[in-house]
Every structure is written in structure tokens, then in C-alpha cells.
Amino acid sequence: MCGIVGYIGPREPEGVLLEGLKRLEYRGYDSAGVAIFNKGKVEIVRAVGKLTQLEKALKGKRFSGPIGIGHTRWATHGKSTLENAHPHTAGKVKIVHNGIIENYIELKDDLISKGHKFLSETDTEVIVHLIDEELKRGDNRGEAIRRAMLRLKGAYALGVIFDDDEKHLYAIRNGAPLIVGVGEHEHFIASDIPAILNYTNKVIPLRDEEIAICTQEECSIMDFKNGNVPRTPQKIEWDAEMVEKGGYPHYMLKEIHEQPRVIMETIDKYIDKDRMVPSFDDLKIPVSTLKDIERIEIVACGTSYYAGLVAEYYFEEFARIPTEVQLASEYRYRHPVANKRTLIIAVSQSGETADTLGAVRMGRELGATVLALSNVRESTIPRESSAAIYTEAGLEIGVASTKAFTTQISTLFILALHIALIKKTMTKEAVSEAIHELTALPWLVEQSLKRETLIKQLAEKFYNYRAFFYIGRQLLYPVALEGALKLKEISYISAEGYAAGEMKHGPIALVDQELPVVCLVTPGPIYDKVMSNVEEIQARDGIILGIGEAGDSRLKKISREFIPMPKAPYHLTPLVYTIPMQLLAYFIAVKKGTDIDQPKNLAKSVTVE
Ligand code: F6R
To answer: Which of 304, 305, 352, 582 to probe ligand 1 with, by most ligand atoms within 8 A of CB?
Structure first.
């Protein structure tokens, strides 16, 4: 996740680029930079940290224009240093990049053998050298870019300019978002529409494998096969409410799409990216207390409870602490056993849920340490707990919780690693590796969101069914529960989530040719076992809606419909597989015409018991 912008036209490029970057800063803020034409060549200015640092670095500078590109970075390959900040350069080529180049190591080795010198640790730098290398085969810039793109594997959106050419701005999209904005005698490129909406409402959303070559007056688009693609700009007609909803028809869909960003912001807050370790410096629980913890109880309701069920695996596997997840409404009326060696984690998006609050008060009375995980700072649960940590999901308006869930799981993942380090149940290297994997999560979630069209088509076929089942095992079991909850609450279809291995103990009696069963399967230690459960359902004529890793031909073969998921580290699969659950419920509800953001009988904050 990074943000890119570009401009060619009569305005001062630095103003346009900074304005655009401000609106894209949600995509990352480890460093920022611009490359702007100035008196016959391109000048690069970069700064580590938030955009304000770049603004300081640019203060007093004047550029002759008329062309420039800009970038705000969220570090994946290489730390947040000046060398790793974009734009990157090789020879005459300057580029900004959003995405991940999967084959960068082999390309880098090849380019080094041809005499290229690398200055950063980024995957991006191979792209700029690759274009520079291709230029040696002829001076046609568009053609050199096209040839270079054919060698890249991965997802990317790029802005490119050349040292000796103030007349052409190049934009390339393959797997990461990028639009071209069309103005009067000017063109813009950006990762997202709001970045340019102040200047124009005419946009061309680039498609995968497309290269746009823009001058001040026109913009031609070709595909990677070198064919010209005729495209007419679309007019963005957003009214005040749509601007508020970011152009989406419902808050729920907007919030689903915000997940890559809010997960990134949440992760950023709780990790030290330079050392790749958890960072809970402000946590008001002494390390000595955490060291002595013998038991964890997670108390929560609804979707937050399911986040707790995922986290239970993390705390037990990473920190080796016996962990139980309790429905807060049940917990408070039992006779729970807790003492000063118990850590109670109260998970609540709103921070106001009456039952969770009741459990917090009871836990404190019993002498336990109570840690709140909430999304709302001024709320009661954090205030009444021993300490609090917060997700960075931002205001969640849709009653069906989406982004709160994935940010809760992300935070609890880091917390489990933090306690594992304190308890010495994992080595620092193993923790760093897990954190490193986590930094790719926003990108993986972004990839998962790309299944939207496929899921919409699925919803259109199945919205009239009377009941659904959702099954998964281990880490995907809570995701099955959450998928079923999402469907029932906004589409009012009866839906049940089940542990796949439990189906044969009763619920399989319900399976027939009228029952769609959403089967969540991921490669891992019990893949064969889950597949046996899925095959048992198929043998009884159940309709298999398979959600599994893209190359899983075994699951695909027995699925009536198959949604391919990006390959993800096992521990992060709950976050990646939740996205299709949310989208499926959403599009089924759209077809049913329900009030998605405010479903009947529900409220966002349940402050009654
Ligand atoms: C479901 C949903 C609810 C909440 C539950 C707890 O989409 O939103 O199940 O998760 O009411 O709310 P919080 O997290 O605010 O305590």
C-alpha cells in the first residue's frame, strides 16, 4: 500500500502533487517524495516520515514545471529510510510505485550482472533499472516501458517520467489501482479519485496491463500487447452524501474497502518497523504483570467475540497461555474464576456494549488485570479497564461490523507476539518473521477485495436460497461464524456457521440439493481433513461454494462455484478470507433490497443488557 500521483499541465506541479498526496496519505506515511521537472532536468526531493516532512523539505523551492510525480510510502521491502523513499531513479528514468514485485530478487541479480548499481533495498528499484536497460534497445520510451513490464511478476501501479522529456507522463497499471484524470490542457494520475477531485471530475480508470501516455493535451492508452485501447473518460458525479460515503452506495461497502488502509494504520501503531518487533510502549500494564499471566479470558459479544475466537489460537500458539473466549453476556452470570494472574481482554468496537462492560467490572472485582481493546477512545469500557489499546478502524457507521473485526484481529495478533516475547515462548527472530509477514497483510486484503465482481455474480445466483451453511476449521472456523452472522444480520437469510468436523455430528442431516454450503479451505496442517468434510457434503448433494487458495484444483473441482483467494501466511488467513464473507453478505443483501446500513431490529451500540 502506497499512494502515487502525477501531473502534467500549466499549474505548479508541486502544489498539485502535495494536495494529491495529502488525500492519499491514508495509504502510507513512512516516507514521501516528488520528482519534478526543473530547468531542463528532473529534480527529486524526498523525506522520511509523514508528508509534513516533505512539505518542510520543499519549502522555498521553485520548479519550472510542467510535469512531476509524487509518492507516499508504506514500507514493505526495506526500512523507512531516505534511500528507500520514492521516487527512484536510474539513468534518465524516474518512477513511483505502489505494489509488490514478486520476482525482484532474480531481476536484481540479472541487472547487477549487467552493471546496474542499486542504491536501495526496495523491490521498486528493479523496475526503474529494467526500464533503463530496455532503453538501450531503442529510444521509444513507451515501448521500453512495455518490454520492461512484461518481465515483472506481481502487482503494481507506476508513474514514470524521464529526465530529458517534459512533454510525457506515463502511468502503468497491473493489479494495483490507478486512474487518469482528464482536465483542460492537463492530465493527472492517482491511486484514488479523491486525490484529483479538486481539479477534475473526468477520469479514466486504467485496467490491468494498460499503459497511459499523457501529454498536456491528450492521453493515449495501450495495453501490454501494444494495441491501442480507445477509452472515454467517465464523469464522476458524487453528491455530498456520496462524497461522505467515498462514492460507495452504502457505508458498509465503503468500510469493507477501507480495510487495507485501516489495517495498515493499526499495524503501524503497534509495531516498530525498524526492528520488526511489537511496540506497546504506552501500555499501562507492567511487563512484570504480563510475565506472570497464567490465563487469558477474552470477553466480547457478536463479531468482536469471533475476533476473540481467532485470537485464542494466537495466544495459545505464540504465548503458550491457556486462553478462553467468553460471550460477555454469559460470563457475567456465571461464577468465573479469575485472579491477579488472569488477563481479561475485553474486545468491543464501540466500547459501550453493556454486557462486555458488565464482564469488565466483574473481572476487576475479582482482581484480574483487564485490558480493553476498543475502536472508540472516549468510551466507557476502556475507561473502566486497567489499561486500553485501540484499533485504528476510524468511525464505523454500517451496523454490520466489518473493518472493526479485521483491525481487532490484527491488533490481537501483535499483542500475542508481544506477550510471546515477554514470556520467551518465541525467539526474537520468529517474532520478527511473523511481523514481517504481517506487513504484507494490507496488500493481501487489497488482493482479496479484487474478488468483488466474482462474488457479486455469485450473490446474484444465490440470493433466493432460504438458508446457508458456512463451514471452516481451526483459524477459519470463527470466519465461518462471522460469515453466517453477516449474512443473517443484513439479508435476513437463515445462516449457520459450523466447525467443519462437527457437521457429521448432526447438522449434516440438513444438507440437500437446496442448501448452499460456503466451505472455507486453506492449505495447512489439516487440509485433507477439511476436504474430507467438504466431500461428505458434496456426497449428500449439498451445493459447495468453495473459498480456497487460487491453485486449489481439488476444492475447485467439487465446488459449484469457486472463489480463488491470494496465497497468504497461514496465521493471516482469517483476515484474508473474511473479505469474501463480507462481500457475499453485502451483495446478497443488495439483491434482496434490505436496509444494509441499518438492518431491522439492530443497533450499532448495544448499551442494554
Ligand atoms: C455484528 C455486530 C455486532 C457487534 C456486537 C458487539 O456485525 O456489529 O455483533 O459486534 O454488538 O459490539 P461491540 O464490538 O461494539 O462491543
So the answer is: 304
